[in-house]
Amino acid sequence: xxxxxxxTKNWDDTYDHWFKREGYGAQMFQSVYKSHGVSVSWNxxxxxxxxQLCVRMDGTEQVCxxxxxxxxxxxxxxxxxxxxxxxxxxxxxNTHLYWKPSACFERLQQQVLLQRAVRKMQDxxxxxxxxxxxxxxxxxxxxxxxxLTMPRPVTLNxxxxxxxxxxxxxDEEDSDDSDSAKPLSYSEMAAAGTCAETDESISKRRxxxxxxREIEQQLQRDTQRVEQLVNTMxxxxxxxxxxxxxxxxxxxxxxxEQWKGEPVYTNYSLWKGTLDYIFYSPNKLAVHEVLSLPKExxxxxxxxxxxxxxxxxxxxARFGFNR
Length: 323
Hints:
This protein is of the alpha+beta class. It is about 35% helix and about 25% strand. The strands form four sheets. It has a six-stranded mixed sheet, with helices on one face. Strands 1-3-2 form a three-stranded antiparallel sheet, with helices on one face. It is globular.
C-alpha cells in the first residue's frame, strides 16, 4: 500500500499502530521542511524487506545541473516473497512530485531522478518486477506521462514541448517598467511632424531590440535544456504501463479523447482530473483487476466529504506474474 501526503502526527498517532496491529510492515519517509511524506506498507506474512532507498527529489543537479527547492520525496522498498517463489520479488516506489501546474520541466527532472533510483535497485535485484505508485501531478496528456509509458523513440507534440519549457520569473510577472514602452512608429513620428527618430525613440527601439534578442537567446537555451532532458529520459527511463491506462474500456463513461484510456479524474476537488497512477513493468507483471472508481454523483461537489476522506480517490490493482 502506497500513501502520499501522510502527515507525521497522523502516522505516529494512527497509521503506524494500525499497520502493526493488522500484521503489516511499514516505512515512511518525510520531507525536510514539510510536515508530511510518503509511505509504503506490506503484508508481513507474504513479504519481507530486503532493501530500501529514500530519495530527495531536489537532487536534480545530477540531471540538469540545477538543484530544485520543492522538498518532494520518494521511497523505494524492495520486497521478497516469504512463502512462494523466494527468487521473486518487487521493487516498489512511491512518490509525490512537484504540484505547480506550470512546472512540467521540474517534474520531468524529478522523474529522471526517480527512474535512476529505481534502476539502481533493479540492477541489484534484476529478477524483481517494478511497481511505481504516486501522485505524479501529471495529466495523461503531459510529456511526462508519454515519456513513461510510450515505446521509444517518443515523439512529443508541440503543446507538450511548449509546456516543458522552464518557467522563469519574467514569465509569471507583468513588468511595469515605463522605459520598456513600445517606441514610436515612423507613421506616428510623421504625424508628429518629423520623419527622423528622436534620441528618445532611438534609445527605446534599441532597448526593445536588446530585450527581444535576449528573449530569443533564452528560448534557444531553454529549448536545448528540454531536448537534453527528454533525451535523458528516453535513454535511461524504462517503459512502464499504467494499471488504469485502459480503464475507459471497462467503463466507457470515463473515455475522453484528450486523456485516452485513463480515468477522467483521480483528484476531485476545485480542480478535477487525473494525477495519480500505478505504473508497472509489463514484461514481468500482468494486471488482473483494478478497483472501480466512484461515480461522480458520489463525489459532487468535491471531496473530501463524509464518505471520502481525501481529495484523491484510491487506486487499487491486483497483479499476477508473467510466467
